[in-house]
Design brief:
Length: 247
């Protein structure tokens, strides 16, 4: 009786990064121009294969982050986003991506890595609308990363990851407006933020002038979960129609 010998199919593993920051008041995602096939010349999320079989996935994510932004662990918010493993997502074979979401304030102009021809900060809306075409399934990954950030702003202190060490409530409001893509009422926002104990705390007696009278400075507080949460406003009909036209 013949016994079939089973062997596991070859599967390659990559890490991809959805790196978000605010630039001139707009939520932006880092994209690179691929310097080699497949999809040479197209924009894609930064990332790559494991360096060797013994490299841990989180270590690979930090390595790619360092290579693309020169950021190191402890200076950036980094979390695993999701795993993408559709059979046809990569023409090179069965490639599974462990995607990560990275957030840091005021990131500088990017420098392309060794396997990329260029790198740039692209407005998130251009990616979400499909105005900018991405290689592989990277539009889906970027969309998931942006939506993860938008949702976590409601229930967690993630918004402070977009700010510097100290910030004003106006600057924090600008984070919410940029990430959510909608304007907020200043007085209502101030009241809601102050109602969440431990979300932000005063940073001494320092103040910063932001176009008007000096504003009090704050820093991230000890609470990582917001209660009550800051619920995202429902998009207006005009916003929904604009998004529908872009799809």
């Amino acid at each position: 009786m013949q016994v079939d010998v089973w062997s596991p199919p070859p599967v390659l593993l990559t890490v991809d990064l959805v790196i978000l920051t605010l630039r001139e008041g707009r939520l932006c995602v880092l994209l690179v121009e691929r310097g080699e096939d497949p999809f040479q010349g197209m924009l894609a999320l930064p990332g790559g294969f494991l360096n060797h079989a013994g490299e841990e996935i989180l270590d690979a994510a930090h390595r790619e982050l360092s290579e693309e932004t020169a950021l190191v662990a402890g200076t950036v918010h980094l979390e695993q986003l999701a795993i993408y493993g559709a059979a046809g997502r990569d023409p090179r074979g069965r490639v599974v991506s462990v995607a990560h979401l990275a957030i840091a304030p005021g990131l500088p102009e990017p420098v392309a890595g060794t396997d990329a021809m260029d790198a740039a900060w692209i407005p998130a809306e251009a990616v979400l609308s499909g105005e900018v075409e991405l290689a592989f399934d990277h539009r889906r990954i970027a969309t998931d990363g942006i939506e993860r950030a938008r949702t976590k702003l409601e229930f967690t202190a993630l918004a402070t990851a977009f700010c510097g060490e100290t910030f004003t409530i106006v600057e924090l409001q600008q984070v919410y407006e940029a990430v959510w893509g909608t304007e907020l009422d200043t007085r209502n926002f101030y009241r809601k933020v102050q109602a969440v104990k431990g979300f932000i705390i005063p940073a001494g007696s320092g103040r910063r002038t932001t176009g008007g009278r000096p504003a009090r400075l704050y820093r991230a507080g000890p609470k990582t979960v917001l209660f009550p949460p800051l619920i995202r406003p429902a998009p207006s009909r005009a916003e929904e129609e604009a998004r529908g036209e872009g799809e």
